[in-house]
Structures
1.
Amino acid sequence: MVKLTFYGGVNEIGGNKILLEDGEQRLFLDFGFPYKRHKQFYEEYLKPRGGAGLLDPLAIGLLPPLEGIYRDDLETPGLWEQFRDVPFYRKLDHIDGVLLTHAHLDHSGHIAFFKDSIPVYSTAVTAFIAKAVQDSGKADFDQQVCYFDRKGPGKPAGWKQEALLTTDKKQQRQFCLADAELKALSEDAVKFWLKSPGQKPLISCSLTGHSGCSFNLRCFPVDHSIPGACAWGIETGSGWVIYSGDLRLHGKREESTRKFIEEAGKLRPRALILEGTNVDRTTNVFERDVYDNGLKTIKGAAGLVIADFPPRDVSRLLTFLQVARDTGRKLAILPRDAYLLKTMRLLEPEIPDIAQEGSIAIYQDTIASKSPNVWVQNLCKEYGSKMILAEDVRSAEDKFILCFSFWDINELPSLRPKPGSLYVFSSSEPHDEEQEIDFRRLHKWLEHFKMRGVGLPVEKKKNGEKSEWEIPEEERGLHASGHACGPDLLEVARGIKPEVLIPIHSEHPDFYVENLRSSGLDVVLPTVGGTIEV
Ligand SMILES: [Zn+2]
């Protein structure tokens, strides 16, 4: 019997943590950051205490109480004595690895807690994006996926508060690439992998192929809102177990998802663990519609255009790049996007070369540009004339599409866009109260600077009831979701035709029970911390 235990992603979107056990062999399928539960306890200024290591996430239930698999440099003295009688406590002497489906933190974030001896299996693009995101961002200790600051001397006995200060010695994790010939990686790609963003060597980093895994694995590329996404197949004593990760059938790489359905179906799998983010939707906006609608909206716009789309969605960035070319504007991207594009190009030569691409500029944040980080200084050296500042945009507003998100909106005082400038919203609507508050703020900013929002959800207040957010009818079609809609998900399930289907990453897993009743598939709903035997 193969056991599947679900520690996250049950009745919630994201935070997937699934333990697969076949006798003494064990794998985790993703090990994501549990945003929903995290937000119930924490906010920007109330965070788990980095200095408390594993204590806070274990005590709050963000991390399953599994002794033996987490970094011992994060163990405070006597830690495990406190957790040995909590529900779901187990001691695991080892796990063979974690199969990571893509580099979104709700799937990858908590890998930060694993011992560095536990290898991460992923596509090359996922590994490189995980590093690029960490290099160019401010990853807290609970989101350091690719490398981390080792606290103290690495032994619980040596744990001291002062030893928890960040050092510049960063320990890299072992990534095993599922889809790349290591020999085929360019020298620049290897160099990128081996150095910190400050260009210091990382400690004992190793990049290997995936053949060393004790399981026979299959890695299937799929389409999602981040490049490099894959689904996994694991051959077990009970037959093949397939894990979808996040996917869709309406993006630029839909063919890869179709191929996954076909190939996984051929394995006659015992079980399919399938995502269900958008089970409630009946249709999709396609990525190519976003281009058409974006072009229509931006063509003839006067003044500045700001495009707000999800970070790391390279497909969307390229969609807006095409709109920029076709409207005679330049796409002004932030340094972190430039860093990501440059990283992606190390693996995929069809990604545009910023140096050669006439329609790309790199916008530097007004205040940060005064003392840039080393990695931004390096971008400046490499792309000199492409770097622009607020004054460059101000003097030629109608020549740019600026790629900002809500979190960059505090740049507007430096930009002071002309009244009537456009804010194109190409991202998802609010999903919780905190995001609703952010949307009210965004509306306030646009109102204050007399900018016109397009595609932006507007609040519909209902008497005494929860307010609803809706995009005005005539402004829809500027965002394509990263997730398949209900009918497409049923197509995936029916096409792969497992004996057992286990829904995950969904607030409405019942959808599968209701819609697959007569199809011969046995739908089994997971519970938090519960085990399903297949
Ligand atoms: Zn995702």
2.
Amino acid sequence: MRIVRLSLIFTILLAGSALAQNASDWSEPFPPFQIAGNLYYVGSKGVASSLIATPQGNMLINSDLEANVPTIRASIEKLGFRFKDTKILRISHAHWDHDAGSAKIKELTGASYMVMDADVPVVESGGKTDFQYGNRGEFRYPAAKVDRVLHDGDEVSLGGTVLVAHLTPGHTKGCTTWTMRVTEGGKTSDVVIVGSPNVNPGYKLVNNRAYPQIAADYEHMFRVLESLPCEIFLGAHGGYFGMEEKYARMKNGGVNPFIDPDGYKKFVADKEQEFRTELAKQRLGSQ
Ligand SMILES: [Zn+2]
């Protein structure tokens, strides 16, 4: 009942937005698969999770909704890895659809939880200090203790794989875009896992008392995204990078469809345009 009510709230919240993810997809299982090299997709249809497998254990990006934890576990096991070998847990940003399952995953695996500095208070308060959703009980989730506080440009490495945490703020104060390199068939590719460039419905870009520098942060985020070399384009929701369509194409063989530098550039440019349109609208409205 509670899940049904929450889904309804998400749907209402996101309805009508060009940025909307179909919230009913968020807990719908999706077959796990190898993206490239030691990088795997273990998320649901609507929210993305990545597993990076190394000889010293595995790293997971995004714990997703609490209800998704058993599905993530099943996906990891289906790929032939052990859930308990999850040594490091990171997130794209401190919103319930990417971090609500973190407390559970920490409890089940003992993974070390690593979060960008400005998102730490939100994660450790279970969403209570979020600038937009903090006073909305329906968006709270179990608080989780952060084991390592990350700063812009920090590297997280395990078993020979290095991930770099880039602060890409605006959507949340500590929104993080992860980069890494994967090697497959003798070719090494730059991977970008976008945190989120979206301006959610209700976000105040002008005169935002809870987040005064929000518009400047979005500007900074777009400059960072533009500067990152990207061959393999991923993000916090499959909808960002056409996950389902690329997964279908992948099965036909040939060039890996997740190698999509042009798709990445177009995504960043389109999202910046959406931000600029919304900012202009809000500035006009505030005069
Ligand atoms: Zn979000």
3.
Amino acid sequence: MAKVIDSKIPAGPVPEKWKEYKAHQRLVNPKNKLKLDVIVVGTGLAGASAAASLGEMGFNVINLCIQDSPRRAHSIAAQGGINAAKCYQNDGDSIYRLFYDTVKGGDYRAREANVYRLAEVSNNIIDQCVAQGVPFAREYGGMLANRSFGGAQVSRTFYAKGQTGQQLLLGAYSSLSCQVNAGKVKLYTRYEMEDVVIVDGRARGIIAKNLVTGKLERFSANAVVIATGGYGNTYFLSTNAMGCNCTAAVQCYRKGAYFANPSYVQIHPTCIPVHGDKQSKLTLMSESLRNDGRIWVPKKIEDAKALQAGTKQGWEIPEEDRDYYLERRYPAFGNLVPRDVASRAAKERCDKGFGVNNTGLAVFLDFSESINRLGIDVIMQRYGNLFEMYEEITDVFPGDVANEINGVKYYKPMMIYPAIHYTMGGIWVDYELQTSIPGLFAIGECNFSDHGANRLGASALMQGLADGYFVLPYTIQNYLADQSIWGKVSTDRPEFDEAEKAVNAELDRLLNIKGKRSVDSIHKELGHIMWEYVGMGRTAEGLKTGLKKMHELEKEFDTNLFVPGSKEGLNIELDKAIHLRDFFTMGQLVAFDALSRNESCGGHFREEYQTEEGEAKRDDENYFYVGCWEYKGKGNEPELIKEPLEYEAIKVQTRNYKN
Ligand SMILES: Cc1cc2nc3c(=O)[nH]c(=O)nc-3n(C[C@H](O)[C@H](O)[C@H](O)COP(=O)(O)OP(=O)(O)OC[C@H]3O[C@@H](n4cnc5c(N)ncnc54)[C@H](O)[C@@H]3O)c2cc1C
């Protein structure tokens, strides 16, 4: 019999659902909060905001992160901004419009009710962050400023120069520090969760490794929340921070938490192109640049060939010979089409031979028109740190004049190409953000909840902070309301013994392989397989080949890995080996899901399923569901469980960004 998933979505139309939900929700008696402990794993925007809020509400919080400070979580990398439906511009924005854009942007594969709730709390996030002192950009008159991001025709993105994530995290960190000072949050930095401990079917604790001493430690609580980020680094090269990993999420999956929509991986259109095989990181050029930058390639193939050979420069090509292909193909949204659409369009041009650098895998992002219109000072105010970052990496400053044709100044354009950036898939959660394991919750990028098959720009921070400040602190209480009578379980229980023994055995296994290959060399090879067969364009044949190659490489990992050092003390190579073990599980899961979904939608593009114009072709009749995967043991195919999607407020249709 097919398994049924209870997503706990309250009945009734959007937006009444969320209000209804709040009205009937169980809350924890304030006195009992003191008896309840919650473990929050992660201090990115999702984790830090959740830990701070839970502490503030009176719960006892244990908060862990792998970095030496919560302020160094990957969230600080976020450049461009955070969405909210404030409508300060008076440009027709509304909660409904943000909700609609997000559902459409996700190619109608998100849960409608969750997205409505997200749009509704988006405005509270901005108020909360302003109250914390986050220095959002302001207009001359003092009003908070906005810019536009992909998939929207209104300006709803709040930003702090190109450092929005860092400033938001500093705000959340202040609140967190306040709770640490009040004794409500106990912070453990440089601790890595290795396993979740299940007692009588509920998550009641974790095993974590002290990354400095190498010792394993046990933590017990009434509930566990993971906020450990996405799995983009499965691909080795990505815009994610080097430390990003999916170990906690994969371990929860191994223990019975369903993993939803793993094939929905976001490839960001504006990254600095790969420039050699010694690279370990790719750099994002924020989507905000598409507000003023225009994307183009030459119209003539001979110009493209000259650019590839280095005998011509972009600024020597006159206006009439430039193909602003996004403006041509999508007149209504132009350069601000969603990321999946922009990435595929860049690939299409480069595949046809119009790439503009020596590898043929790059397109131009050009600021000439906007600098001529607004002046370099305005452009520098908006994107100064991004221009400097680009110069530091490529030695080209996009604000430098390079040429003048017919009295028009041409500035040096950036070169960009799509790269792995974000993962929409994640641990399956119900409407309360609880996983399929009672007592285990997942928030932020590590859950699958709100973005469907494609995330719109500036919506990850919105979701992470919505989860952390405004959703989880309430929904978790529904679970905790009657938990105070059980108390905390002892870490001496056999379930903790068993979990710790298993983690120890894994560490020994990895150290004792004593083969010849470094973690990075194998990870790089896995990344090549992922990009080649499970990347931007997928086919059934390619996915099967990719899976076969992954199995072979995993065998190589299990038999020929070399990890220097020992279990005691700091051993970064050992930590990376654990992460790589889990990237293998994740990579195969992405491929299984992609193979099972015989349609194209959002970030999942199966080449067999496309329109004549090369757009994604969905199959709503057969694939209008969340694909949830249940772990069936190493080497075995996981089992697919479907959560059907139900739309009441929005008409499901083909995405259109042309008019
Ligand atoms: C370059 C870049 C720019 C971006 N710009 C934007 C933007 O402008 N707007 C936007 O909306 N989104 C943006 N994003 C996406 C956004 O930054 C992320 O989706 C978001 O910050 C994720 O937050 P998080 O709290 O879920 O996870 P993270 O910030 O990744 O935090 C994960 C936390 O978990 C901890 N952790 C991980 N594993 C373990 C473990 N096993 N044990 C203990 N702790 C663990 C880490 O220490 C960390 O504290 C950008 C992403 C990138 C890569």
